[in-house]
Amino acid sequence: MEETTFADFLRTDWNNYMSIGSAACVVIAILILLYHEFRVLQIKDYKEKYDYVNLHEIRYFWYAVLALVVAAGFYANTVATHKIASHGELWFYVRLFISVSFVVIGYFVFYSMVRIYYPRYVEKRLVKLRNKPRVSPTGNLMRKLSEEEEDAHLDASQIAEEASGIHSVDYDVWIDDASGFKKIEKYESYLHAEQCPECEFFTFKIVKEEVDLKPTETEAGLLLKHYQCDYCNHREARETKLSPLAKNVA
């Protein structure tokens, strides 16, 4: 390609392509976030909304951030185009290499930031969804029962599942005092990250559970939960008592 032709290509077509690519990526990022929020708004049941946010929010947010990182890479290839066109083709490839390098660096930096910081926001949103007052089919606001009250409304298997300590299952019981309508929601708390005692990020997860001492009909058992931080790699084992078998049987 002749120098004059290449310079003209940079000033017109190349800049246009890069600007369009940058704008398209920004639009894609916005559409991803809007799509996610639209799906959340479409779900009327708070438990279903909780499960959807828990499964998808961090992933969609990361996709949006990634689109913005790529948009920045496209935009970087429009910077100082007129100077590059006058200094020769070599500087075009230098700028391209630098832009790609920054996109790769941005990918890892923002991936780490999303993985470390964003779960804190998601957990707050999940807590709000879990505690938001439910509405019964008759239109009455329901009341969330306390731990002491809810056992009367759970069956033996549900009580045993909560008491076992294995997989950290928890049940919420909502009741409409006016009509007597009852709703039981199951939450698998072991899927959530906790705050790491070492780095204090919400990246502390259960990686393995093992029964150290099996419970009997008269003696309690012991469960070891092994935690590991995805950020600082801090490891920790915590003991959880298992109720005697007699208490888990109706």
* Uncertain stretches of 5 or more adjacent residues: 246-250
Number of domains: 3
Order of helices and strands: HHHHEHHEEEEE
Mean of all residue-level pLDDT scores: 84
Tell me the distance between the termini. Answer: 84 Å
Helix amount, in percent? 40-55%
Main β-sheet: number of strands, strand sense, barrel status?
A: 3 strands, antiparallel
- The DSSP helix count reads 6
Apparent shape: elongated
Strand segment tally: 6
Query: Strand pairing plus helix content: what structural class?
Result: alpha+beta
The value of Rg in angstroms is 27 Å
Instruction: Please give the order of strands in the largest beta sheet.
Output: 1-2-3
**Percentage beta strand:** 15-25%
